[in-house]
């Protein structure tokens, strides 16, 4: 896998087109027109408010540049308290996705896996111990690494199975230079992936 300058943000492509006198895609023109995905966030490691906000801000930027808005719904992690969080009820909507930040990867999980996407139930599991190790190993801010892992796994829920690519955020394995780009905001979805994601979210919204 190599970055090679190909996995640029879709917003970068939009700016380039505008510079050439072409109109930007309509889905990117206003906030209101963007399709929306709701993230039901179950934090089992009790992230600090600072890390959580930085992660969400980075996630918002990644998906906004792909033409999609994210809505965040903090959800309970204690049994019997779901009724206190009305925004977390109603997981029937196909644009709702559950994010579970777990303390550690389960036994048997591939050693390089920092998360997993369960397409059928629309659940993303992220393994905090491995995210921490990877961030420390490559000297990347923990909130950036966390956001990148989550964005990648949610990408699988929207792009479908076998959606790894040779560049961009959906690379199957990041190398040192790719992880360095995380801190600079230099990795996002490819233009083709942006189109697919927007169409998929709109399709799900239309069916609701």
How would you describe this structure to a colleague?
The model is unreliable at 1-9 and 11-31 (pLDDT under 50). The protein has helices at 10-19, 49-64, 128-138, 142-159, 176-183, 191-207; strands at 36-43, 69-75, 96-102, 115-118, 123-127. The longest helix is centred in the last third of the chain and has 18 residues, at 142-159. Strands 2-1-3-5-4 form a 5-stranded mixed β-sheet. By secondary structure, the protein is of the alpha/beta class. It has 6 helices and 5 strands, in the order αβαββββαααα. Strand 4 (115-118) and strand 5 (123-127) form a beta hairpin.
Strand order of the largest sheet: 2-1-3-5-4
Beta-strand proportion:
5-15%
- Going by helix content, strand content and strand pairing, the class is alpha/beta
SSE arrangement, N to C? HEHEEEEHHHH
Alpha-carbon Rg, integer: 17 Å
Low-confidence stretches: 1-9, 11-31
Helicity range: 25-40%
Number of strands: 5
In terms of quaternary structure, the protein is single chain
Q: Between the first and last Cα atoms, what is the distance in angstroms?
A: 37 Å
Question: What's the main sheet like?
Answer: 5 strands, mixed
Principal-axis shape equals globular
Q: How many helices?
A: 6
Mean pLDDT: 82
What characteristics describe this protein?
5 strands; single chain; alpha/beta; 6 helices; disordered N terminus; 5-stranded mixed sheet; 208 residues
Give a short summary of the structure:
This protein is of the alpha/beta class and 208 residues long. The protein contains 6 helices and 5 strands, in the order H-E-H-E-E-E-E-H-H-H-H.
């Amino acid at each position: 896998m190599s970055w090679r300058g190909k996995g640029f943000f879709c917003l970068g492509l939009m700016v380039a087109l505008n510079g050439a006198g072409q109109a930007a895609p309509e889905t990117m023109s206003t906030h209101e027109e963007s399709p929306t995905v709701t993230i039901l966030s179950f934090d089992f490691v009790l992230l600090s408010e600072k890390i959580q906000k930085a992660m969400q801000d980075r996630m918002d930027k990644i998906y906004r540049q792909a033409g999609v808005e994210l809505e965040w719904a903090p959800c309970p992690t204690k049994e019997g308290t779901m009724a206190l969080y009305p925004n977390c009820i109603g997981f029937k909507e196909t644009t709702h996705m559950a994010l579970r930040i777990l303390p550690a990867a389960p036994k048997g999980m591939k050693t390089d896996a920092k998360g997993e996407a369960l397409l059928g139930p629309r659940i993303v599991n992220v393994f905090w111990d491995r995210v921490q190790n990877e961030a420390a190993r490559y000297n990347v801010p923990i909130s950036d690494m966390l956001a990148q892992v989550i964005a990648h796994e949610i990408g699988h829920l929207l792009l479908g199975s076998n959606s790894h690519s040779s560049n961009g955020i959906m690379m199957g394995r990041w190398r040192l230079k790719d992880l360095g780009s995380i801190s600079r905001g230099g990795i996002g979805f490819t233009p083709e992936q942006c189109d697919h994601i927007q169409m998929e979210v709109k399709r799900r919204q239309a069916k609701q």
